Structure to design on (580 residues):
């Protein structure tokens, strides 16, 4: 997405009249950015700031506050591995370390080809299927270490 | 027990309006709008004894009465679908399998309190739920249950989804409102309460998903009928999400006040590999731990408070004899450190110190004095600005109190006795 297209998307968002004041459009605008840019950079934030009449610093503090917004460059696919209690009790940490070993990254890092970012993540509400992993919006539950290569291959991992 | 909250979820396409309507859906809304005044609706909900299912357990009818009494316009009705308490996944089931029950509950609540606009604050981690809710809202508009002059009455209500973006604190209602306003999710001082000064400082009702799913039932069958289910002082059906070392993790609908032991052994199938149960966090990550001797306790607000813990979201996390309590409590306090918004010192610093101390104990570098420091930090955290910090230390402090020997073993051995390999 270009910055001009992004600006257009925010204008469309404002036309929904979903909120009675401009600043409330901030999270929805940042969601559009999160889904369409590799990172929510200052250039991206500036467009939000201008369209919503919110000071740039307030856009940045919000972008940095929420765990799902990436202000640093992320991979095409974000792999979130839950290691909170129920997933931990059922092997979430082993899943995370095997995933990091396969992709040769540490939690929080992105593979050099820009395909995957691995995140150690907090509870995603999939505890009945612990341990749980998500890849962008896809869910994987009761994940076993052995099936990780197969999951990765679906997203273009050459292994 | 007859399934009430989960009555629709096993039906094919239960998330569609066709299936919902076929099973009597939106009849309660019709009844409320055509046969009852807003005051009648509030009276019925008060009579039911329904208490909020998000964690705090505030009487829903009373909240609605406060909001209805405030005459500032416009008013907002917000559904708190920011289900972030670790190991809580009960609202997800309603959102994904019975979204119209939630929408109908919101409509009835908005009618009772005079709210014109509504938002569902949905956690960012539920993208599948978002798509289902978007479709359900679209269907409700198409059939005339949302929008202007609903069912030919003067009542109008518009409903939107607002996606969170991964911040546990936004489940706290004033932080949620800040987030809705496009800010960092930091809690506000109370009072004023959201019912008087919420979104854009206008009267705002904030109700949890499960709470709202009860409303069509109460209107359909009456508050008196509802008040006869489960515990007399906090009646109704309750969704208990059970996870951890049980044979059948899942969401179980049972009368409020069902014994914890019954939920674990009869409904969730008992402990994996028939091991011994070691400990249970009975109400999410913020609740104090219970030992195996303490699980014959009714799962409701007053009984768990009496047992020194809390019902919270009702999320039951079960540990077996092979699990390390130090490691479990460490993982929970790590969560709270990550999610502390940083606004107040007791929570920001307290969660950080508890993580450092707990980690060194787990790694075999703890000292016996650490246990007193943990309890002292916990006491200080009681002075936190909001509920997050006030409760964050519970899993750690209660573990130290109830499993002191296990902590001492870590310290004496200089390693975690449960660590494999």
């Amino acid at each position: 997405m270009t910055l001009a297209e992004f600006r257009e998307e925010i204008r469309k968002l404002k036309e929904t009249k979903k909120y009675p004041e401009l600043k409330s459009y901030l999270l929805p605008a940042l969601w559009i950015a999160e889904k369409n840019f590799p990172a929510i950079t200052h250039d991206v934030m500036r467009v939000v700031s201008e369209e919503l009449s919110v000071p740039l610093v307030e856009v940045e503090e919000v972008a940095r506050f929420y765990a799902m917004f990436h202000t640093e460059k992320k991979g095409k696919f974000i792999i979130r591995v839950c290691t909170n209690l129920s997933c931990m009790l059922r092997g979430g940490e082993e899943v995370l370390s095997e995933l990091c070993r396969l992709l040769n990254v540490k939690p929080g890092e992105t593979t050099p080809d820009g395909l995957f970012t691995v995140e150690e993540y907090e509870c995603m509400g999939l505890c009945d299927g612990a341990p749980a992993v998500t890849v962008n919006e896809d869910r994987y539950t009761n994940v076993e270490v052995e099936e990780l290569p197969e999951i990765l291959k679906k997203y273009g991992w050459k292994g | 027990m007859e399934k009430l909250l989960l009555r629709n979820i096993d039906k094919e396409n239960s998330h569609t309006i066709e299936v919902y309507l076929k099973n009597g859906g939106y009849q309660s809304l019709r009844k409320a709008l055509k046969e009852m005044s807003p005051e009648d609706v509030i009276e019925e909900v008060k009579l039911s004894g329904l208490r909020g299912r998000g964690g705090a357990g505030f009487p829903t009818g009373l909240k609605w009465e406060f909001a209805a009494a405030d005459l500032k316009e416009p008013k907002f009705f917000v559904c708190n679908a920011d289900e972030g308490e670790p190991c809580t996944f009960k609202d997800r089931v309603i959102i994904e399998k019975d979204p119209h029950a939630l929408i109908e509950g919101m409509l009835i609540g908005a009618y009772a309190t005079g709210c014109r606009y509504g938002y569902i604050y949905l956690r960012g981690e539920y993208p599948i739920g978002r798509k289902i809710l978007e479709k359900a809202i679209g269907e409700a508009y198409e059939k005339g249950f949302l929008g202007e002059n609903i069912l030919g009455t003067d009542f109008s209500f518009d409903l939107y989804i607002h996606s969170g973006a991964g911040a546990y604190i936004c489940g706290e209602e004033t932080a949620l409102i800040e987030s809705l306003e496009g800010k960092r999710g930091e809690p506000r001082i109370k009072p004023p309460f959201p019912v008087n000064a919420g979104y854009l400082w206008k009267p705002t009702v904030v109700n949890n998903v499960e709470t709202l799913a009860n409303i069509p039932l109460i209107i359909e069958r009456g508050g008196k009928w509802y008040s006869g289910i489960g515990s007399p002082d906090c009646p109704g059906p309750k969704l208990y999400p059970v996870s951890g070392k049980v044979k059948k993790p899942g969401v179980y609908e049972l009368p409020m006040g069902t014994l914890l032991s019954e939920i674990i052994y009869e409904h969730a199938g008992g402990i994996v590999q028939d091991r011994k149960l070691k400990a249970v966090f009975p109400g999410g990550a913020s609740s104090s731990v219970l030992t195996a001797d303490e699980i014959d306790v009714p799962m409701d607000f007053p009984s768990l408070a009496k047992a020194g813990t809390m019902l919270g979201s009702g999320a039951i996390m079960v540990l077996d004899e092979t699990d390390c309590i130090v490691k479990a409590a460490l993982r929970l306090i790590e969560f709270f450190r990550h999610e502390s918004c940083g606004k107040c010192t007791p929570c920001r610093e307290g969660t950080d110190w508890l993580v450092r101390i707990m980690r060194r104990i787990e790694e075999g570098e703890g000292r016996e004095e650490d246990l007193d420091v943990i309890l002292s930090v916990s006491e200080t955290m009681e002075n936190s600005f909001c509920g997050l910090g006030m409760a964050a230390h519970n899993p750690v402090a209660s573990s130290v109190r109830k499993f002191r020997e296990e902590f001492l073993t870590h310290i004496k051995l200089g390693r975690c006795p449960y660590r494999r390999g």
